[in-house]
Amino acid sequence: MSKVYCSINNCHYWKEENLCGANEIIVTSDSLGETAPDSFDAPLHQQFQSTPAASCMETCCKTFVEKGSGKEKEDGVMKS
Ligand code: SF4
């Protein structure tokens, strides 16, 4: 994956120097991120509908999972 820089340091995939350590991520709209289950994530990217956004405020990293939440395996994403 290309380098993805991220400052969300309580994410399971976050690494030192503000790097994302996931092997894949998906960015989508806030509205989809709020309603889709945790299992609907980057490995299923071809099933995502298009979600236009008017600004960065309407987008989110769907792959975020809180470190220590116990939900780290639900998205099917691996640490690289
Ligand atoms: S999965 Fe998303 S929130 Fe988590 S470190 Fe990567 S880019 Fe940041």
Characterise this structure.
The protein is mainly beta and 80 residues long. It has one domain. 8% of the residues lie in helices and 12% in strands. It contains 1 helix and 4 strands, in the order E-E-E-H-E. A two-stranded antiparallel sheet has the order 1-2. Strands 3-4 form a two-stranded antiparallel ribbon. The protein is globular. The mean pLDDT is 97.
Short description:
The protein is mainly beta and 80 residues long. The protein has one helix spanning 30-35; strands spanning 14-15, 19-20, 27-29, 59-61.
Annotate the secondary structure layout.
Blueprint: E1 14-15, E2 19-20, E3 27-29, H1 30-35, E4 59-61
Antiparallel strand pairs: 1-2, 3-4
The structure holds iron/sulfur cluster.
Q: What's the average pLDDT? A: 97
Task: Enumerate how many helices there are, as a single number.
Answer: 1
Multimer state:
single chain
Radius of gyration over all CA atoms, rounded: 12 Å
Beta-strand content bin: 5-15%
The helix/strand class is mainly beta
Bound molecules: iron/sulfur cluster
So what's the overall shape?
Answer: globular
What is the count of structural domains?
Answer: 1
Approximately how much helix is present in the residues? under 10%
Jot down its keywords.
80 residues; mainly beta; 4 strands; binds iron/sulfur cluster
